[in-house]
Each structure stands twice: as structure tokens, then as C-alpha cells.
Amino acid sequence: MLKETYQKETAPKLKGEIGKGNIYAVPRVVKIVVNIGVGKEKGEKEVLGRAREELAMIAGQTPSFRLAKKAIASFGIRRGDIVGLAVTLRGRKMWDFLEKLIRVVLPRTRDFKGISRKSFDGHGNLTIGIVEHTAFPEIDPHKVEKIRGLEVTVATSANKDDEAYRVLKELGMPFKD
Fold first, then answer.
1. Could you tell me the superkingdom of the organism this chain comes from (predicted)?
2. CA distances from 110 to 77, 120, 173 (A)
3. CA distance 118 to 120
4. Which entry of 23, 61, 84, 114 is 20 to 30 Å from 78 by CA?
């Protein structure tokens, strides 16, 4: 279990390396947000329903629709249109998803060479783009009508990218070095 690995091995090791006086000050994974953009399919209820089912199977939790905050005429988007689906994972579901991502999904991704350190946002959060959602074991590639890309954001309590990198690297995240 990845959570137990963090609590028993990673946190005590990083406590000394990072120079934190308290085990609770060591950066940790706070939440994971998984989202899918729907693009031109925003008005098709059947397609949105299938996308919602697939994201629910991947995340283990029902996603919510994300609405456009403002109108963009060049994209044909009006304020309030559905532009995507998102799900926020915390607790046990978050740890289970992270373990599945590290040990199953990323190794199954075609032409995967590791995650770039440039994928951090400057505040200790890592965002990974996955080109094909069929890399997840819950999705049967023979029953999928359309291959979708999705985005996974791993939010940590770290303020610096280096600290977040060290935590995720210790947990087994495959970075390019």
C-alpha cells in the first residue's frame, strides 16, 4: 500500500533530508484531480454520459460537469456550456488511484519515457497529461467509441517543486532524470 510506504518510510526519511523538525511538516499528497475536456461534444448528452461513465470507472467516484466561466466566440463556447468533467480524490481513493497510476497506467502508456520536471507548476503540484484513457485497466479498449485524453493533477502540501519532486520520487513516480 502506497499510503503505508509514505507513512513508514518516505516521511521519516524526508524529515531528516529536508530539515523539517516535525513529521507532520513533511510534504504529503493532499488530493488528486482528474479531468477530461469534452470539446465539440459539449451538446451531445449521450456522448457526455459515456464520458462520465468512463471517468467514473477510472476514478472510482462520480465526476461532476465543469461549465464555461465566460463565452469565447472563436471556440463556439457560451457561458454555462459544459466544457469538461472533473473528479477530486482524497483519502483512500486518492492513494489507491496514485498507486494504480504509478504501477499500472504510466508503464502501459505508449511511448512513455518518464515525467518531465517541467510538469510542476511552481507551487508543488504535478500535472500529467495522459493521451489515451485506455491505459487504465478498467477501460476495455474494444468497447470504447472514442479515445479520450485526460489530465491528472497531483496536489501536494509542498510549497516548492523540489520538495514535491522528492516526495513523489520516493513514492515511485517515474521521472525523467
1. Bacteria
2. 32, 22, 17
3. 5
4. 61
> Are 85 and 35 spatial neighbours (Cβ–Cβ below 8 Å)?
yes
Instruction: Give the helix ranges, DSSP H, for the chain.
Output: 2-5, 11-18, 45-59, 91-100, 106-108, 161-171
In whole angstroms, give the CA distance from residue 118 to residue 52.
30
H/E stretch holding 33: strand 29-37
- The alpha carbon dihedral of 57, 63, 65, 69 has a sign of negative
Structural domains of the chain sorted by starting position, each given as residue range(s) with its CATH number in brackets:
2-40+50-64+84-171 (3.30.1440.10)
Alpha-carbon Rg of the chain, whole angstroms? Answer: 18
126-168 pLDDT, tens digit each = 999 988 888 888 888 888 888 888 999 999 998 888 889 989 9
pTM: 0.88
Chain centroid, CA 73 distance in Å: 30
CB 142 within 8 A of CB 111: no
| Number of Cβ within a 10 Å radius of residue 136 | 20
